[in-house]
Structures are given as C-alpha cells and as structure tokens.
Amino acid sequence: MPTYEYVCAKCGHEMEAFQSMKDAPLKKCPCCGKTGLKRRVGGGAGLIFKGSGFYITDYKKKPAGKSEGAKTESKPAEKSAK
Q1: 56: Cα separation from own chain's centroid
Q2: What is the maximal distance between C-alpha atoms in the chain?
Q3: CB distance 2 to 40 below 8 Å
Q4: Sign of CA pseudo-dihedral 48, 51, 57, 61
Q5: 56 phi/psi in degrees, rounded to 5
Q6: Neighbouring C-alpha atoms within 13 Å toward the C-beta of 1
Q7: What does the H/E/C string look like for 8-65?
Q8: Residue 35 in contact with residue 17, Cβ under 8 Å?
Q9: Model-level pTM?
C-alpha cells in the first residue's frame, strides 16, 4: 500500500496517509476540519540497490565437501641473504 502526500488548501497543513490504491482521496483536513485537502502529485520513491549487485550465483548451494574456512594461501619462499 502506498503512502500519499496531502496538503490543505485552506490552512497549508501537510500530511502523509498510508492508503490502498482503491481508497478515495481524503478531503477533510485533520488540522482545521475543513474540506480543503488535495493529494500531491509525487515522483514516488525509486528502487535503489546498494552494493556490488545481486547475481543468481549469490544463492547457489555450495558443495558439501568444501568449506570456505579451509582455504589456505600459499606464501612465496623466502630467500636467505648470504
């Protein structure tokens, strides 16, 4: 259910209402009690993804025999100074 923004033409009161899309627009201002509410036309909130992204491989099951903690890093052999 979307959130709609309203402004009263009589007193200037601004408010938000959580309504179904099927509901009729509100008309009576809760602040002054007059029928002056008008629904604002808003751009809406866009869908924002943050991070590196979502891929189908992110949710694949990992093989049972391998665990990520068992990975070892190989270090280059140190040369002795002579």
Answers
A1: 20
A2: 94
A3: no
A4: negative
A5: -65, -30
A6: 7
A7: ECCCCCEEEEECCCCCCCCCCCCCCCCCCEEECCCCCCCCCCCCCCCCHHHHCCCCCC
A8: no
A9: 0.51
Whether 37 contacts 26, CB under 8 Å: yes
Gap between the Cα atoms of 26 and 9, Å rounded? 13
Tokens of 24: 């009729």
Query: Using one digit for the tens of pLDDT, what is the confidence trace for 39-77?
Result: 988 766 677 667 666 666 666 666 666 555 555 555 555
Structure tokens at 70: 């068992």
* First and final C-alpha spacing in the chain: 76
The residues with which 8 forms a beta bridge, in sequence order, are 37
Q: How far apart are CA 22 and CA 4, in angstroms?
A: 12
